[in-house]
Automatic annotation (TrEMBL):
It comes from Streptomyces bathyalis. The keyword Hydrolase does not apply. Pfam families: PhyH (PF05721). InterPro entries: Phytyl_CoA_dOase-like. One of its GO terms (molecular function) is iron ion binding. Keywords: Dioxygenase, Oxidoreductase. This is Phytanoyl-CoA dioxygenase family protein. It comes from the Bacteria.
Length: 274
C-alpha cells in the first residue's frame, strides 16, 4: 500500500500549560483530538495489515499465558512499511512528546502495535520502563487507539501519580505484578482512572507510570498503535534484568552503557533547535 503522508502529521498540536502540568503531576495525560478521525482512518488499514502479516502468535487464545492473552504485540512496524513510517515519524506526535517531557528533542525508542482480540484478557498492572535500560525517566509512550474505544473494549487504566512510586518497578507484566501492584497501589490510595477514547484521542504516559487494561468484552479487536519516545540526550543504563538486556540488543544495537543511543533505529523525531 502506498499513500501520501497526511499533512496533519506535520502540523503542530496546540498543547497548553495545563496539559503539561497534568502530565508532570499525574504521570500521564489524555489529549482530545490530537489526530482527526480521517487521519487515523487513513493509516489504520496499513497498520492492521502489517500486524496480521508480522504477528507470530499462533496459539489459540485459551492456550496462552496471561501476557499472551493480553494482546497481539508487533514492534517496529515502521521498518516494514513506508506508510507506517510516516505515521510513527510524525513531527506532530513527537513534538507533543518533547513538550510534555520538557526536553528540546526526542528520539524513537520503538513503535509497538498492541491489538487486544475479542475476548482478550486483562493487561496486568505494570510500568513500561521496567523493560528499558535507560538512565532517566524522560520517556513517554503515545497510546493511539485506531478506533473509538469504549470502556468495554479495554482502554488504558492509570494509577494517577504513580510515576513517583518506586515499589513494584522490578515486576514484569504477569499475574504476580497484577496481584502485588493491585495491593500496593490501593494501600497508597492512588486514584485509578479508566475512561473511553474517542477516535483521534491520544494519551501520553511516563515510562514509570503504572497502568493496566481490562479485558476486551467487545466483538471487535481493540486496535492500538503506540510510539515510545525518549529524551534525545538520554543514555543507556546498565541493564538490571534479562528483559533490559534483550531490549538493549534489539532496540539500541551497539550502544554501550553511558552512551546516547544514536543508532539508525533511534532517529531524532523532533528537535526544537532544528
Amino acid at each position: 500500500m502506498t499513500t501520501t503522508a497526511h499533512p496533519e502529521l506535520h502540523r503542530p498540536y496546540s498543547l497548553d500549560a495545563t496539559a503539561r502540568r497534568r502530565f508532570e503531576d499525574q504521570g500521564f495525560v489524555k489529549l482530545p483530538g490530537v489526530l482527526s478521525p480521517g487521519t487515523v482512518r487513513n493509516y489504520e488499514p496499513e497498520i492492521t495489515s502489517k500486524v496480521i502479516e508480522l504477528n507470530t502468535q499462533r496459539l489459540p487464545l485459551a492456550e496462552r499465558d496471561t501476557y499472551g492473552k493480553a494482546f497481539l504485540q508487533v514492534t517496529n512496524l515502521w521498518q516494514h512499511s513506508e506508510v507506517v513510517r510516516d505515521f510513527v515519524f510524525s513531527p506532530r506526535l513527537a513534538r507533543v512528546a518533547a513538550e510534555l517531557l520538557g526536553v528540546d528533542a526526542v528520539r524513537l525508542y520503538h513503535d509497538q502495535a498492541l491489538y487486544k482480540e475479542p475476548g482478550g484478557g486483562m493487561t496486568p498492572w505494570h510500568a513500561d520502563q521496567y523493560y528499558w535500560p535507560l538512565s532517566t525517566d524522560r520517556t513517554v509512550t503515545a497510546w493511539i487507539p485506531l478506533q473509538q474505544t469504549p470502556v468495554e473494549m479495554g482502554p488504558l487504566t492509570f494509577a494517577v501519580g504513580s510515576h513517583r512510586f518506586v515499589h513494584g518497578r522490578d515486576l514484569p507484566i504477569s499475574d504476580a505484578s497484577e496481584r502485588e501492584l493491585q495491593r500496593a497501589l490501593a494501600e497508597q490510595d492512588f486514584p485509578v482512572l479508566e475512561t473511553p477514547y474517542e477516535l483521534g484521542d491520544v494519551s501520553f504516559h511516563n515510562g514509570w507510570t503504572f497502568h493496566r487494561a481490562s479485558p476486551n468484552g467487545a466483538v471487535n479487536p481493540r486496535r492500538v498503535m503506540t510510539v515510545i519516545y525518549m529524551d534525545a540526550d538520554i543514555t543507556v543504563a546498565e541493564p538490571v534484568n534479562d528483559n533490559q538486556r534483550g531490549d538493549l540488543h534489539a532496540w539500541m544495537p551497539g550502544t554501550a552503557v553511558g552512551e546516547i543511543p544514536a543508532t539508525p533505529l533511534n532517529p531524532v523525531l523532533h528537535d526544537r533547535e532544528a
